Amino acid sequence: MVMLKIAFRNIFRQKRRTLLTALSMFGGFVLAAFFIGWSDGTYSNIINLFTSSQTGHIQVHHKDYLDRPSLYKTVDQLPRIAEQLAAIEGVKSWAPRLYSAGLASVGEKTAGVRIIGIDPAREIRTTDFHKKVYLGAVVDRDAENQALLGKGLAKLLNAGLGDDVVIVSQGADGSIANEKYTVVGLLDSGDEMNDRSAFYLPLKAAQELLVLEGRVHELAITATDPDRVAHVNARLEEALKGLDKNLATEPWQVFARSFYVAMKADKEGMYIMLVVILLVVAVGVLNTVLMSVLERRREYGVLRAVGTRPGRIIKMVLLEVNILGIFCVMAGTVAGLFINYLASVYGYTLPEPITYGGMHFQTMLAEINARSFYIPAVTVMVTATLVSIFPAFKAAHTDPARSMKLY
Amino acid sequence: MKHMLKALALVLVLLFVLPYLVPAQQNKPMQDAEIRELLKKMDQLYRSDSSYAQVEMAITTPYWQRTLKMDFWSLGMKQTFIRILSPKKERGMATLRMDNEMWNFLPNTNKTMKIPPSMMMGSWMGSDFTNDDLVKEYTFLEDYTFQLIDVPQPEAGVLYIKCTPRPDLPIVWGWVVMAVRQKDKMPLHYDYFDEKGKLMRQMIYKEETVFSGRTIPAVMELVPANKTGYKTVVRYLKATFDTDIDKTIFSLRNLRTNM
Amino acid sequence: MLFYIKLAWRNIFRNKRRTIIAGTAIGIGLASLIFTGAMMKGMETNMMQAATASFLGEGQVHGVGFRETQAVETVVTYADDVMAKLRMEPLVDKVTARTLSMAMITAPSGVNGVLLVGVNPETEKDLSQMDDTIQKGVYFEGHNGRDIILGSKLAEILELGLGDRVVVTVAQAHSGDLSQEMFRVSGIFHFNLKEMDSGFAFIRISKAQQMLGLGNAVHQVAFRFKQIKNSIDPALPLWKSYSVKGNEAVSWMEILPQMKAVADMNSMSVIMLVVILGAVVTFGIINTLFMSLYERMFEFAVLRAVGTRAGGLRKLILFEAGALAVVSIGIGLILGFILTAIFVKVGIDYRGLEFAGTTIKDMIYPEMELWQFIVFPIGVFFFTMVVGIYPAWVAGRLNVADALRKSL
User: Fold this and answer.
1) Residue B258, phi-psi category: left (phi > 0), alpha (psi -120 to 50), beta (remainder)
2) How many contacts does B have with C, using Cβ atoms within 8 A?
3) In chain B, domain spans
4) What's the CA gap between A151 and A186, in Å, rounded?
5) How far is it, in rounded angstroms, from Cα A98 to Cα A82?
6) Is the pLDDT of residue C243 over 80?
7) Distance between CA atoms of residues A34 and A50, nearest Å
8) Is A255 inside a domain boundary?
């Protein structure tokens, strides 16, 4: 098409002008893409930090457990559930937990505790459990008498590594559960309240103590892609329905609602910021496109004078702007991908690490996702097009003589 | 004239004397003092200055059933010692309560554990009794106001006394209705209501037996009315009252004795 | 010198359209920077308030060891002194005292463990949102020491309604004796947070002190600053000066380290954001300036042709950049102020979060601070000048004859 050829030639004719216009489109695009990748990355970081530090992205319980916890509301049939979990892609790893209340006594001191039975290997894989243990080691899976104490609990009981702790609780068969364990490690999860009463045992030992063989209260599951948690949760729900009608699975947005609400509020704030950035980008594009179109009034005047119809002039302008826009968007995507990739791998290292629950967080990473590209792309293209319509229209319909007299 | 006066006098005399000539009714209304005596008896039924009992407690929940057999000593209101005899898993466990302190001994781990006061309000050994029930601080006589009442479907020969806790006392019930057999003043059942009149639990007394010269119901059944599937039945196998009890029983040393 | 400045001014106003477009573009950029700065501050404050306003308070004073052990005997030493002094602190806004103890609540239907908080209703109102979240009944009216307020979830579990009777049991300080008292439910609150709604019960502090055998002692003095930013300043001398004589004063950050982690991450994001925005604005400046200057190469050539020296021309261009900067800053300041002021009044609405309840203020108010109106404009001016250097330099090296050739 002749129009296309002309448009292309026009673009390359005035290199400087083209370059400047392109710069604002390209620069704006890349920066917007970077911002989105960055802020999305930050949120994912925060969410990951919390969910993987203890709770996981998805949790499975007996359907009434969260509302009114009870020793008897258990998740059974673990082997079959494990099968199902392995079959769902999107599940990264999972860890089972058993909970009960009891009394712990070391020497003369007694305190109420929360007994937590864990599968050490799975817990390490799912929540980086070993990073929270600041003294000693994680309990051994097959150990019958090893225990891990929360920091606050250890202080309350005046207990240290190697000390004996006696536990009294009530088993699921009503009998008095009573055992002695040795402290092999101390734990700091970052949650003071948790650590004041947390008493970890290997799952098997806990199940024996509480007469709950083969049963647990909770499955904490991490997803490979935190953004697809809802999807994985839905699939899990399907799979579990067939197994046991009493099970319920919830994503972190449900079981950690207060955290979710706080994050959501923050994210809303970020949306506003995004709007602001896009606005500024749009204005930048507007500015340059407008000026370049306006500056070429004389050109258009000449074109009109030699007989070009106004419609064609408008088309030409729009074509130029859009070609330039597309080119910038493509170049911007390449550059943006590159920058975001670097940022997602290397990130920005904070001057001081943020610590939470044994997790040391020092590098902020960006995220690569689709919306960091299509949002800026749409903004740039739409703005450029919209902005050029009016001046193009004006230029196309002004009397050629007048247009040419502008200099 | 004299005739008429005489007739009037007779009528008057009859009016006053007649009630007393009528034979005594079946249900003679009880005087306040008699009710007080009754309540005192109820309060003291299982109490004494010292006691020893061997008791079987059968606990039923929707999830499990257990029967514990234990020896139980008490001295005054503040000292109790309990040693569990069966089942095998709990055999040898003991609880000592002295004034406001409570200890558990666990033979399995050879551990004497002092119970923090906050733990003492919970249910005892998973039963429907709380420590409060076991160490009754409040008496019906002193801490409640009472009156005889009629109930919609009374059982024959049974008195019903409604006891309302005095205001501001830390008692959670709205009122308690005691059903007592009139003939021998034996308790039949206590019904506990909340302030809105909803029945919350029932304590049922059965099988009167003579222990050490005292006639008491050997079986107490505690049934919560607001949840299904729960019941605790306490059965006295042996009991002696007000005999000399070795005071060294109430000691940590005794607690730690492995059977 | 003055001559060039005057000339520069006149020049930029000669082509009004171009100047206004350019000025507005840069001005909008500046306005957005100002607004962003204010928004970020507002969001930060909002998040901190969310963490602290529902109950925690921004700072707390305890007896040493209380945070770890929660022992009934560990009280705030010289509490009256501490409170009086705190009230006089210029930075502190509100102060209240509380007792905290584990307790059992018995109702006819069952027993439940709870954190019993003894509060002074008047001063407590200033520090917690409990009075705003009362669902049934009232928040402490009158003087009845037997009033108790509990959470909606707890009321549900124990089947309690207003006016119902409960017995509260606590262990007394020092002796460990059990102390029991009867209370009547006078209010039920609903924070929409499981932890608060099921785990907390409030009574009057005098009653609590009596039950716990504490005399006049308290476990916690909670306070709030006039400006929440003081609560996150660890260098504030206040923390040290109240951590004496057996007490320790901590900010909410130490009590809720997870919130602190989030707050830290947020500040990093903010800085990033400002940098990005700044880059976007700089791009705008570059484009605008280059565009407007390159278009006028003919003009500059004429100037050179009539004898203006290269240096003079450079100066002129630089000053024009400066003048444009000034115009842009003017526009930007006005726009920025108006925009921010509107939102300061109106707030930004989160009504979409229908379950936010009262724990998160559903409006965010940007905070206007002077630095926003000084730092950013200076930045814009500086960048504009810097960016103007290149075209100025190019103009100076202009090949006059070439440039004079009019081109299409």
Assistant:
1) beta
2) 67
3) 32-255
4) 6
5) 16
6) yes
7) 24
8) no
- Quote the pLDDT of residue B14: 45
| Residue C158 clears pLDDT 60, i.e. is over it | yes
> Binning pLDDT at 50, 70 and 90, where does residue B24 land?
very low
Judge whether A297 lies within some domain. Answer: yes
**How would you classify the pairing of strands A109-118 and A198-202?**
parallel
What whole-number distance in Å separates Cα of residue A34 and Cα of residue A366? Answer: 8
Q: Quick check: C279 and A279 CB within 8 A?
A: no
Say if residues A29 and A334 touch (Cβ distance below 8 Å).
Answer: no
pLDDT in tens, A248-266: 999 988 887 777 776 776 7
Q: In B, which residues are within 8 Å of C146 by CB distance? A: 168
| Domain count of the fold of chain C | 2
Whether residues C222 and C327 share a domain: the answer is: no
What is the DSSP code string of B25-74? PSSPPPPHHHHHHHHHHHHHTT--SEEEEEEEEEEE-SS-EEEEEEEEEE
pLDDT over 90 percentage in chain B = 20
Q: Which of C255, C277, C309 is the last residue of a domain?
A: C255
Q: How far apart are CA C292 and CA A20, in angstroms?
A: 11
Q: Residue B133 — pLDDT band, cuts 50, 70, 90?
A: low
CB-side exposure of B13: number of CA atoms within 13 Å? Answer: 6
Residue numbers in B near C210 (CB within 8 A):
none
Euclidean distance between CA atoms C162 and C135, whole angstroms? 11
Residue C8: give the domain boundaries: 2-51+261-404
**pLDDT band with cut points at 50, 70 and 90 for residue B16:** very low
In chain B, which among 88-117 make CB contacts under 8 A with chain C? 100-101, 116-117
User: What gap in Å lies between CA C339 and CA C362, rounded to an integer?
Assistant: 20
| Least trusted range by pLDDT, from A43-52, C82-91, C354-363 | C354-363
Task: Look at C283 and A299 and tell me if their CB atoms are within 8 Å.
Answer: no
- Domain limit, last residue, from C185, C220, C255: C255
What does the pLDDT read at residue B26? 43
The residue range of the domain holding A19 is 2-51+260-404
Mean pLDDT of C360-365: 58
Q: Is the domain of A150 the same as that of A264?
A: no
- Same domain? For C73 and C219 the reply is yes
Let me know the angle formed at the C-alpha of C338 by C336 and C339, rounded to the nearest 5 degrees: 65
- Indicate if C216 and C71 belong to the same structural domain: yes
Beta carbon pairs, A and C, within 8 Å = 180
C191 lies in the same domain as C300 = no
C271 in the same domain as C366: yes
pLDDT of residue B11: 45
Q: Indicate whether C24 and C91 sit together in one domain.
A: no
Least confident residue range of A3-17, A207-221, B209-223, C135-149: A3-17
Pair A87, A194 in one domain: yes
Q: Which of C108, C146, C181 sits opposite B173 (nearest CB)?
A: C108
Instruction: Using the predicted structure, report yes or no on whether residue A174 has a pLDDT greater than 70.
Output: yes
In chain C, the percentage of residues whose pLDDT exceeds 70 is 94
Distance from the Cα of C187 to chain B's closest Cα (Å) equals 18
Entry pTM: 0.77
Indicate whether C97 and C207 sit together in one domain.
Answer: yes
Give chains near C: 3+ CB pairs under 8 A. A, B
Domain count, chain A: 2
Chain B residue numbers with beta carbons less than 8 Å from the beta carbon of A103 are 113, 115-116, 119
Asked whether residue A43 carries a pLDDT value surpassing 50, the answer given is yes
Do C172 and C205 have their domain in common? yes
Pick B32-255's CATH classification: 2.40.50.140, 2.50.20.10, 3.65.10.10, 2.30.110.10. 2.50.20.10
Tokens 């991908």, residue located: A337
